[in-house]
Design brief:
The protein has helices at 13-27, 51-68, 82-88, 92-109, 114-122, 125-134, 142-145, 150-159, and strands at 4-12, 31-38, 42-50, 71-77. By secondary structure, it is an alpha+beta fold. Strands 2-3-1-4 form a 4-stranded antiparallel β-sheet, covered by helices on one side. The longest helix is centred in the middle third of the chain and has 18 residues, at 51-68.
């Protein structure tokens, strides 16, 4: 997308990160890339979308986190270069490779390891749903997978191999 922008909000604490991400996602049509936890209690919320939407989302996130007193800084990079984009947004091919790697690891080991769980948690919900559709014995009915949230999908994928969290 030629007008794709990157929006960054750096906040103090987990509360600030949750408020920033939630406010930004509700304010405009943007996609959350990740919340990167940095040492010292700092977290950077990373968003992408078209320039106008990212600007609106960042402004809303700034207002919400300023009122909590946890805003450190924010910035919008409009029309980011492909090299910059590759630092934050995986390509479709990279996403597919991650999905295939997780599927292969699950089938080979037949258990969900901690590293696999971390990979699952880093995946987007849409990719977790694709993974759930490809596997047998998922404890979520196929008709309900499209409505499942990230936590439910990760939990279900772990349940298949008897390693559910309590």
């Amino acid at each position: 997308m030629p007008n794709e922008a990157l929006g960054l909000i750096e906040v103090k604490g987990f509360l600030g990160a949750v408020v920033a991400a939630d406010t930004c996602l509700k304010a405009a049509n943007v996609e959350l890339i990740q919340c990167e936890v940095i040492k010292g209690g700092l977290t950077t919320v990373e968003l992408t979308g078209d320039v106008g939407a990212v600007n609106a989302a960042i402004e809303a996130g700034k207002a919400a986190t300023e009122s909590l007193g946890c805003l450190v800084s924010s910035h919008v990079i409009a029309r980011m270069s492909e090299e910059t984009k590759s630092l934050f947004v995986p390509t479709e091919q990279e996403k597919e490779e991650i999905i295939q790697e997780v599927i292969q690891e699950i089938r080979e080991v037949a258990t969900i390891t901690d590293s696999t769980e971390q990979k699952l948690r880093k995946m987007k919900v849409i990719d977790l749903r694709k993974l759930a559709y490809t596997l047998d014995n998922v404890p979520i009915p196929k008709s309900k997978i499209k409505y499942a949230n990230k936590e439910k999908l990760v939990h279900a994928l772990k349940d298949i191999y008897g390693r559910s969290e309590n």
